[in-house]
C-alpha cells in the first residue's frame, strides 16, 4: 500500500457517499466530503512547505474540521501532535519547544499568546470550535484531491505526550502500524461493521477518543454521532440512534445517576466500552441491573494503544480487563528483577506486540528504561492473571492519579508547590471521588516559621497548570509520613485524607 495507515482507514472511502459523522448541529458529513476537506488541508500544509516527518501541533476544540487535520497529516506523512485543550500556555511552551512542530494550529482567541511560545520557523494557523479560522479559510483555496504520500509501517503517525513520574513529559512516538494493527484487532474483536453508529463524546486529543474510537469506526466504514464533549442530556437524546458508546468510567456513573437513563433507552444498543481508568465492579453491576448490558472493559496506554479486553461473546468479568489482545504478548514480572512470575502472582504488567510504540521522542535513555531490548514495554501497572486467564490491574507502581480519565502526575504539581515561598515540602495524592474516580489533594508542610494560605498557594500555581490538574484541596500538615528509607508514604496520606474529607 502506498500509505500504510491512511489507505485502509480513509483512502478506500474516497468515493464513499455514506455518512462518516453527524456533527453537533445535525449536519451529516459523508466520507467523501470529509476526505475532500482533509485533502484541502493536506494541500495547504504542502503549500506551506511541510515535509514528511514534520510535526503538526494541534490545540483546538473538538469539531469535524479538527478531526480532518488528523486525516490531512496522515495524507502528507506528517506527525500529528494533539494537545489537551486544557493546557495553559506555560504547559504548551514545553511541548512546542520539545517537538519543534512545523505547523501549530490553535484557537484564534489564543493565537497571540501562543505565537509568543512557538519556536522560530513554525507557522501558526487557527481553528475555532465551529471550524472557522485561517486553517479552513486558506484550505478552501486548495484542491480537494491529493495523492497521499508514501508511508511505510514504521513511519510516525503521531506523537502523544504523556507525563513522566520524575518531571518532564515524554512524547510517545506512534507509527502507522502501531495504530493500524490495533484498529484492525479491535474492530474485529468488538465486531464492528458499517452498520455501527458510535456515540463519540470523548476528546480527540488522546488515544481513547482519537485512535480507538475514530480508527475503529473508519476501518469498519461505520458512522459517528460526533459530540463536542460529554453532555448528559445530549447523550440521552442521541442514544436511541447509536449502537456503540465508548467512554471513561465517569460517563457510566453519570449516566447511572440520571433517572432518564433507562433499560428501554438502550435496549437496542450493541456495545458499551469502558477504559482509561478503573471501572468499579459496583458500577459494572449497577449498569447491568439497570440496563441488562454488561460494559466491556478494556485496558490500554498511550505508549501501547490497547493491550487487553474483555471478550465480546464470553463473560465480561467485573473488576478485570479481560485477556491480552490477539497478537499482544503480555506477562507479569517481578518489578525488582524483571523475571516472569507465574499466574496468580501480582507483578508488573509488561506487553509486546505491533501495538507497542517506537520510543520516546528524543529521549533514548527514557526509552531504554521502559522498553526492553526484547520488545517488552514496562507499563508501570501492577496486575495479576487469574486461573481463568482474566487479567486485573491491582495497583500502579508509577505515581499517577487518574481523574475522569485524565492522567495527572503528582510530581508536576509538587514541583510547583515546593517552589513557592512558605512551602517546606509537599506531596500530592489522589483520593476516591464519586464523579471523577480520583480527586487531587495536596499536602503542604510549611517552611519553618511560615503559615502559607492554601487558597493563595492554589492561586499561584493556577496559571501554570491545566484546570483538571488543580488540587481540589490543599491541606497544611506538620510533616509527611515517611518509611524507614525516607520515602513519602503516599498510601498513608491517601488513607488519612480519604477518611477526613475536606471541611
Ligand atoms: C473536567 N474537569 C476535571 C476533569 N474534567 N477535573 C478533573 N478531572 C477531569 N477529568 C474540571 C472542569 O474544568 C470543571 O472545572 C470541573 O472539573 C467540572 O467539570 P465538568 O463540567 O463536570 O466536566 P466535564 O466537562 O463534563 O468533563 C468531565 C469528563 C471529561 C467528561 C469526564 O474529563 C472527559 O471527557 N474525560 C475523558 C478523558 C479521556 O478521554 N481520557 C482518555 C485518555 P471548573 O468547575 O473550574 O470549570 S487515553 C488513555 O487514558 C488510555 C490510552 C486509554 O486506555 O484509553
Ligand atoms: P495514559 O498514560 O493516558 O495512556 O494512561 C494509561 C494508564 O491508564 C494505564 O497505564 C493504566 O494505569 C490506566 N488504565 C487504562 N485503562 C484502564 C483500565 N481499564 N483499568 C484501569 N486502569 C486503566
How would the blueprint of this fold be written?
Layout: H1 6-9, E1 19-22, E2 28-30, H2 31-48, E3 55-59, H3 64-76, E4 79-82, H4 89-99, E5 103-106, H5 111-115, E6 123-126, H6 134-139, E7 156-164, E8 167-175, H7 176-189, E9 197-200, H8 207-220, E10 223-226, H9 232-238, E11 244-247, H10 249-256, E12 271-274, H11 281-291, E13 296-301, E14 305-309, E15 323-324, E16 329-333, E17 347-352, H12 364-370, E18 377-385, E19 391-396, E20 401-403, E21 406-408, H13 410-418, E22 423-433, E23 437-446, H14 454-461, E24 473-476, H15 490-499
Helix pairs in contact: 2-3, 7-8, 10-11
Provide a descriptive summary of the structure in words.
- This protein is an alpha/beta fold.
- Among the domains are: 1-6 and 31-152, Rossmann fold, CATH 3.40.50.980; 401-498, ANL, C-terminal domain (GMP Synthetase, Chain A, domain 3, 2-Layer Sandwich).
- Helices cover 29% and strands 25% of the residues.
- The strands form six sheets. It has a nine-stranded mixed sheet. It has a four-stranded parallel sheet with strand order 4-3-5-6.
- α7 (176-189) packs across α8.
- The structure holds methylmalonyl-coenzyme A and adenosine monophosphate.
- Residues 162, 207, 275-278, 297, 299-302, 321, 379, 381, 393, 396, 402, 407 line the site of adenosine monophosphate (AMP).
- Residues 202-203, 206-209, 229-230, 248, 250, 275-276, 300-302, 403-406, 436, 467-468 line the site of methylmalonyl-coenzyme A.
